[in-house]
Amino acid sequence: MGPSSCHLLILIPLLQLIIPGSTQCSLDSVMDKKIKDILNHLEYSPSPVSKKLLCTSVKSQGRLASCPAGMSVTGCACGYGCGSWDVQGGTTCHCQCSVMDWTTARCCYLA
């Protein structure tokens, strides 16, 4: 290997250090800036009618707990550490374990 080949092998890594970062990184930063600018200029106009989510819990003895009229089940809890339950008809919690002392339904509606 001649001296010119050795100089070339030394020169290549040095050139890589001098060349600025990849164009992909600079393109990403430009796109991030443009997206942030666009999002900052969007106007947010909330709906004049605001609704609230109102909830209550209904606890019953046994395997079933039902929500009052107009409310829907959003979650259930079962006694004896039972984690198996399903919602029946959108308004009733049904605990699926064989022996159950209580069932609670979390019931909500939009007001």
Q: What does this entry look like structurally?
A:
With 111 residues, this protein is of the alpha+beta class. The protein has a domain at 51-108: Resistin head domain (Immunoglobulin-like, Sandwich). Helices cover 32% and strands 32% of the residues. It has two helices and six strands; from the N terminus they run ααββββββ. The strands form two sheets. A three-stranded antiparallel sheet has the order 1-6-3, with no helix packed on it. A three-stranded antiparallel sheet has the order 2-5-4, with no helix packed on it. The longest helix has 19 residues, at 23-41. The model has no long low-confidence stretch (mean pLDDT 80). GO terms for molecular function: hormone activity. Belongs to the resistin/FIZZ family. Pfam families: Resistin. InterPro entries: RELM (IPR009714), Resistin-like_sf (IPR036262). Keywords: Disulfide bond, Hormone, Secreted, Signal.
